[in-house]
Amino acid sequence: MVTLNPDYRKVKQSYLFSEITKRTKAFQASHPDAKIIRLGIGNTTEPLPEIICDALENASRRLGKRETYSGYGDEQGNSDLREAISKFYAKLGLTIPVGEIFVSDGAKSDLGNLMQIFEKGSVIAVQDPVYPAYVDTATISGHQIITMPCTPQNQFFPEMPKQPSVIYFCSPNNPTGAVASRSQLEQLVDHAMQTDSVVVFDAAYSPFISDPKLPRSIYEIEGAKKCAIEINSFSKSAGFTGVRLGWTVVPKDLVVSNTKEGEANAVWNRRQTTFFNGASNIAQAGGLAVLTNEGQEACQKVVDYYKNNASMIRAGLGESGITVYGGRHAPYIWAQMPNGMKSWDAFDKFLTEANVVVTPGSGFGSQGEGFVRFSAFGHQENVQEAIERVKKLKF
Ligand code: PLP
């Protein structure tokens, strides 16, 4: 008999975004004149810088000429892009050789695919609240999930699991906007080394970090190459949410218990060369332009635009008496509702009284109850208007 993977039955229905859409549509239908502003999802809104568009356009034109046409590239990514990524790390003072860098079609694919290299039934530890893809991909892959509560009381830095685990750790964090300090990341790496755990560090939002004292890569922490994999993305740093490009670093020094040095890197290489035929060559040409000095400068301006939105949201919510976290080195503001208001009640209030869509924090895990997430991805004029409306609400 052929059966489907039963673990798919264990995945919770993605209630969060479908319910947001359902409630928003119903409200719009009954209030056709309401100008709804969406600050719910983490999708980029600003155009790509010219230099990146030129690179994408030129790459597609090269495909139109016999002399410059190219087909499949290396599954691990084109060598010029991998070298550029290696140089990107060198600017942080880090040595990450090309052989440890694997280009992908985005961080989400890799954070899920990485689950495949760990034995079924492994313990996957995730922060709570959490980006839901970690939990769903761990469930489908047949792993056990344990949660690490992240609250204002622990400054959103959780207690570590007692047992050896694959610890998915995201900083700057989605959804809380919290960013881990150097000493917190030292604790994380120390813990992983002592418990034979592996850290999967999601650095998708690292370009939002503007304080040079805060690490942008887990490899800034001594010893991390022995215990950590890092995922990164061009989505939020360069507006590639639709173009699709990212990378993962699997160090050759990484030792997962009962393997030898280099084996984890070789297994990931095997996984990628078996299941993946490489990222789009057009996207990779765009990525190469992103990593030039000019590209970095242009992309940083867009990141700064979103960061300015985040500051406006923080300030506006603060004036309304809402306690805010995050939003300084991240595009997300984690807003704690006053008087014990529940997340979905707050969602309804923002929608019906200010016509602003946010994301209920409870959708990211039990520790998100009582919070909502504001996203700073949006046109500045819309963010400004949304905040003016929110400031008039009474809680
Ligand atoms: N990791 C986190 C924490 C995210 O919030 C997201 C997207 O919102 C991703 C990964 C996915 O990134 P990508 O677009 O590169 O797949």
Describe the overall structure.
- It is built from 13 helices and 13 strands.
- Helix 5 (107-113) packs parallel to helix 6 (132-140) and helix 11 packs parallel to helix 13 (380-391).
- It has helices at residues 7-10, 15-30, 50-62, 79-90, 107-113, 132-140, 182-195, 235-238, 263-275, 281-290, 293-319, 343-354, 380-391, and strands at residues 37-38, 101-104, 123-128, 144-149, 166-170, 198-202, 228-233, 246-249, 323-326, 332-336, 356-357, 359-360, 371-375.
- The chain is globular.
- A hairpin with a 5-residue loop joins strand 9 (323-326) and strand 10.
- It is an alpha/beta fold and 395 residues long.
- The mean pLDDT is 96.
- The chain binds pyridoxal-5'-phosphate.
Present as ligands are:
pyridoxal-5'-phosphate
Oligomer: single chain
- Share of helical residues: 25-40%
For the largest beta-sheet, the strand count, sense and barrel status come to: 7 strands, mixed
Structural class: alpha/beta
Distance between the termini: 58 Å
**Count of alpha and pi helical runs:** 13
Counting DSSP E segments of at least 2 residues, the number of strands comes to 13
> Low-confidence spans: pLDDT under 50, at least 5 residues?
none
Strand order of the largest sheet: 2-8-7-6-5-3-4
Shape: globular
β-strand amount: 5-15%
